[in-house]
Amino acid sequence: MKKVAVVGLGNMGLGLAKNLIAAGFAVSGHDLRPERGRMLAELGGAPAAGLADLAGAHAVFVMVMTGAQVMEVVAGAGGLKDTLKAGATIIVSATIQPAEMRAVEQAIAGSGLNLIDSPVSGGQFGADAGTLTLMVAADKAVFAENEDLLQAVGERIFHVGEAIGMGQTVKASLQALIGVSFAGIFESLALGAAAGIKGETLYEVFSSTHVANTPFFKNCAELIMARKFEDGGSHISTMVKDIGISMSLARESGMPLFATSAAYELFQAGISRFPDGDNWAIVKLLEEFSGAEVKW
Question: Distance between CA atoms of 28 and 288, rounded to whole angstroms?
Answer without folding.
Answer: 46
